[in-house]
Amino acid sequence: MANDEMTNGKRQTVSPQPKFSNEERLEGIGICPGIAIGTAFLVDDPRGRIIRVRLRESDVEKEIVRFRQAVEMAQQQLDAVYQRLRAALGEDQAYILEAHVLMLQDQSIGRQIEQFIRDNRANAEWAVREVSNRLLKVYAEITDEYMRARSSDLEDVSNRVITILSGTQPRSFTDFSEDAILVADDLLPSVAAEMNTERIHGFATNAGGWTSHTAIIARSLNIPAVAGLRRITSRIRSGETMIIDGHAGLVILRPAPDTLRFYLEQRTAEQQQAVYDLEERELPAITSDGQRVALRANIELTDEIEVVQRFNAAGIGLFRSEFLYAKAESGLPTEDEQYEVYKLLAETSGHEGAVIRTFDLGGDKLHLNGFKPERNPALGLRAIRLSFKVEEVFRTQLRAILRAAVYGKLKIVLPMISNLDELRHAKRTITELAQELHAKNIAHVANIEVGVMIEVPAAVLLAEYLAREADFFSLGTNDLTQYLIAVDRANEEVNHLFDSLHPGVLRAIKMVAEAAHQAKIPVTVCGEMASHPAEVIVLLGLGLCDLSMTPSAIPMIKRIIRGIDMQTAEQIARQALIFTTPAEVNNYIHKEMAKHWAHHSVATPDN
Amino acid sequence: MELRRIVIPNRLGLHARAAAKLVRLANTFRSSVQVSRCESPQRSADAKNILGLLLLAATQYTEIEIMTEGIDETAAIDALSRLIEEKFGEKE
């Protein structure tokens, strides 16, 4: 770990772990950056600890009354949440809670539960769980994926009733302390809707990754969050102090005094920085010798447009459209729904425009029939491959983009391109659709720019040829690094190998940059590399002056750029390419960083 | 008793929102309302309760049969058929 910190620029803010203390650290996936320090608040998952009680005959009818009262109370809670949600988000988003209310009112299940209580002299908690488990089994056999997914609603409702019955914890999220950090297995939508978000400073969950509910909620609220911790709910109790380091994807439980002090300083620095960053908003992103660098924003949701503007990004360098799926409760978003989203992007992203990446989904994320879980999803039916397979979904998306492009500057980028045929096929489809729209007299843009994501090694090797037919490149360094080194970042046995400064990765990036420059097409770097200072310097040195990143990283990267001249960057890049091991490259670059930009605290904290 | 066969026309089928609307409407009538899948009539659900309806898993183009029985059975079957024909108020 200590070694990792020294060699990896991403971990620069992590404090050393003390030897003697109660402190415990868990690593997960940082889904929203920032530091939160606060008191843990465990959102109860009542499933785990239901007591089974065999009642006395004389108590059975009382238990049924208790059950009915709990249902009544759940009903009131849900009604209140429903009203709030409808007021906040509108009927369309709130309907799922209406289904919850109806499930509570469902007499057949109510009767079954009461029958179970009578037959088994069971306590109500046990009966609710038993009967809903039976139903869930029936649901599990439904073949339609979307319909089957509704079983999570049934679980949500039965948990609510069980929680009320156990009386352990009122699910009122208005009464936690001022500095609460929410700890949960996963955030259920109905729970999220109930929260008093002003008092929540962070999220930490067992489940989830980038596309989980937790991630979407955390990012739209800009609250530091770490997901995928797997066992955090069993490692901490409500009321204990904990720290979330959303940058490093780290959670620290019961921090030792030194750790706490370290993070308090970090947090203060971050807050001061935030104020300062906004003051620097208007400054142009140019190197000290006058090279202009485009700093664009990567976003998932239109809610983030406000943040894009706040940080004065040069348009949207990457819109990850698949989040339209993650957000849509009702499955596939329609052409008109998508059109509205893309139109908003076109209207708000100014003359720099927005680059829309077509759906980068795996078959498992798409609620369609006939896709089985894959043994190797990273190499499976995902992104452009899936789009070609479900061509109507692809065409619907493209039509929506072509129509929306009338309102501003939109470009299309195709994910996971591995050969020229895929690019040609997609371009042909776009031409056909434009002709159809023309024939139907529907306003659209016919000559839209079409680029390819360079993220598959084969695309790097073919970059020269792809560059002749694509209008631009988007360099997805995360996936490219994963595929080049053949390492799954979610696998903790091997994820220490993931390193975008790996000599192999740097050489691939250089090839792509050269191919693009030769063909005179623009190339935007839109992986995480673009938001890490040390890596940005190398990118600049390789002539990559168009970067797209999470908007909150823009101020920091702008400062780096304004403090460097191209000659130094080129020299650093050239030298970095001489090294042949990842450790050598990392050590060299961090030494250079420390030399030139000491105030960016790239030095490790134990120095 | 009134019987009518109808094909689920909307893209998402009898999903949560559509089922919720159907249950709400069914509950405004005094008649009993049963819905079953035509190709397997033993799969039948009380339309006044949502869980059974969802378990029918009636996707787009599934043919279902509605049966109403009671004092307002004709009004009930007309109203319910209309809701389904109008795609539960959904666009597609």
What do these coordinates show?
The complex is a heterodimer of chains A (607) and B (92). Chain A is α/β, with parallel strands linked by helices. Chain A has three domains: 22-44 and 171-271, 3-Layer(bba) Sandwich (Glucose Oxidase, domain 1); 47-166, Enzyme I, Chain A, domain 2 (Orthogonal Bundle); 283-600, Phosphoenolpyruvate-binding domains (TIM Barrel, Alpha-Beta Barrel), CATH 3.20.20.60. Helix content of chain A is 48%, strand content 13%. In chain A, the strands form two sheets. In chain A, strands 1-8-7-3-4-5-6-2 form an eight-stranded mixed beta sheet. In chain A, helix 17 links the parallel strand 12 (410-414) and strand 13 (449-454). Chain B has 92 residues and is an alpha+beta fold. In chain B, strand 2 and strand 3 form a beta hairpin. Chain A binds chain B through residues 95-96, 98-99, 102-103, 105-109, 135, 138-139, 142-144, 146-148, 150, 153-154, 330-332, 334, 336, and chain B through 11-13, 15-17, 19-20, 23-24, 46, 48-52, 54-55, 57, 59, 91-92.
Strand and helix map with partners:
The complex is a heterodimer of chains A (607) and B (92).
Chain A: H1 2-7, E1 24-27, E2 29-32, E3 35-42, H2 60-89, H3 91-105, H4 107-120, H5 124-140, H6 145-149, H7 151-166, E4 180-184, H8 189-194, E5 200-205, H9 213-221, E6 225-227, H10 232-235, E7 241-245, E8 250-253, H11 257-279, E9 294-299, H12 305-310, E10 316-320, H13 323-327, H14 335-348, E11 354-357, H15 383-389, H16 391-404, E12 410-414, H17 420-439, E13 449-454, H18 457-461, H19 463-469, E14 472-475, H20 477-485, H21 503-519, E15 523-525, H22 533-541, E16 546-549, H23 554-562, H24 566-576, H25 582-596
Helix pairs in contact in A: 2-3, 2-7, 3-7, 4-5, 5-7, 14-16, 15-16, 16-17, 19-21, 22-24
Chain B: E1 2-7, H1 16-26, E2 32-37, E3 40-46, H2 50-55, E4 63-69, H3 73-85
Antiparallel strand pairs in B: 1-4, 2-3, 2-4
Helix pairs in contact in B: 1-3
